[in-house]
Specification:
12 strands, 11 helices, alpha/beta, two-stranded antiparallel ribbon, TIM Barrel, 337 residues, 8-stranded parallel β-barrel
Length: 337
Amino acid sequence: MTTTDSPHAPRRLGTTGPEVFPLGLGAMGMSALYGPTDRDESIATVHAALDAGMTLIDTGDFYGMGDNELLLADALRGIPRDRYQLSVKFGAQRDPAGAFIGNDNSPAALKTSLAYSLRRLDVEYLDVYRPARLDPNVPIEETVGAIGEMVQAGYVRHIGLSEVGTDTLRRAAAVHPISDLQIEYSLISRALETSILPTSRDLGIGVTAYGVLSRGLISGHWSKDRSSEGDFRSVSPRFQAENLDHNLALVETLRTIAERKDVTVAQLAIAWVAAQGPDIVPLVGARRRDRLTESLGSLDVTLSADDLAEIEKAVPAGAAAGDRYDAGQMAHLDSEK
């Protein structure tokens, strides 16, 4: 894996993937799931990210029922293709009302999805293409093999995975080099540390970590009385009643550490993820320029061994109350099995 002497130095996605800016931009919230959106501000945020040197932008063809890709196409129009890298997830199936109705990672479905993504994004290739979830009806070897055909054809540069466990990682890597595993990782979502992260490292697979602020819960900006209407966090276990009280108390312990270092809670939390290894690239889901600026400030946060020990004591693994998804979604996560 790439080692870095500077927090601003590029990081490589695994041993075979591209070099990217040390933070990636997650675009999902610009179109869906986190309440009202502002298209103009979202586009301005993408431009600000690129101006700051960020290169990796993550989306999914099902974010906003395709709207997220169209938004990014507008934001990226006229910008040289070598200035940014697109990571796209596919496979989630939705009905006309927007409900999620399963996953289809079959070769025919993924090639069709890829064609539509290329058209919506108005690009000739994707830098990383990955199934959003494991499809229990399609062997991972078939899915990876089909994406590999698209690599050979020039439509995809690298193959990634998302939320899969160790067995799936090994089976996929035996078919084609895998650049990175996209998986939730934060101070309060650390299940991957037991076996998934060691396996990824054994295989030379990098990690793009989403949910580094646990969907805003540990950003330092979430308040107990905040409305989550029209927001999937309204049904997220970690945001419910006593769970929320417990988790916000953890945030206050982090705030004490952050204030002593003269940084924000969000910056401390992002810097902690980045400090877990040079093979990890945190994805920040900033929807506004001010939040992006705050996230970028995490690159200037230096965490000593003593700092890391203090953070670990304040928020040890397993400290959060509530699962990261509801029971139905947790049951579909290969990474949790």
